[in-house]
Amino acid sequence: MPDPSKRRMRRLRRAHQTMPEPVRAVFDRARFQNLDYYQIADELGIDIAEVERRMAQAMMHLMRNTDDTRPGGLERFGAWLRAAFGRVWRR
């Protein structure tokens, strides 16, 4: 039986790959390049509100595509995502 954390990481990677490009561009800059929202907005030529909106879309996309929709799932997912991206999935 496959390790549940490995299955979840595969689902997370697949969800990341299927993210719309404008959303993924913001997410990648925030998570992988550690840019703040002001830097992302400047680099992409969009305003801060659009950066916030796209980050929210990215988080919802990842949550929906990793099947964590139980009550409290968003909080658990956010904590897990920070841990997973911080230690396992670096570019």
Unreliably modeled segments: 87-91
* Element order: H for helix, E for strand: HHHHH
Mean pLDDT: 81
Number of strands: 0
For this structure, what is the CATH homologous superfamily?
Winged helix-like DNA-binding domain superfamily/Winged helix DNA-binding domain
Largest beta-sheet details: none
| CA(first)-CA(last) distance | 28 Å
Helix content: over 70%
Question: What is the CATH topology assignment?
Answer: Arc Repressor Mutant, subunit A
CATH class: Mainly Alpha
Reported CATH architecture: Orthogonal Bundle
DSSP strand (E) fraction?
under 5%
Number of domains: 1
Shape: elongated
Number of helices: 5
- Specify the structural class: mainly alpha
Q: How large, in whole angstroms, is the Cα Rg?
A: 13 Å
Describe the structure.
With 91 residues, the protein is mainly α. It has one domain (4-87): Arc Repressor Mutant, subunit A (Orthogonal Bundle), CATH 1.10.10.10. The chain has five helices and no strands. The protein is elongated.
Write the layout of secondary structure elements.
Blueprint lengths: L3 H14 L3 H11 L5 H8 L3 H17 L8 H15 L4
Helix pairs in contact: 2-4, 3-4
In short:
The protein has 91 residues and is mostly helical.
Question: What structural keywords apply?
Answer:
mainly alpha, 91 residues, Arc Repressor Mutant, subunit A, elongated, disordered C terminus, 5 helices, single chain
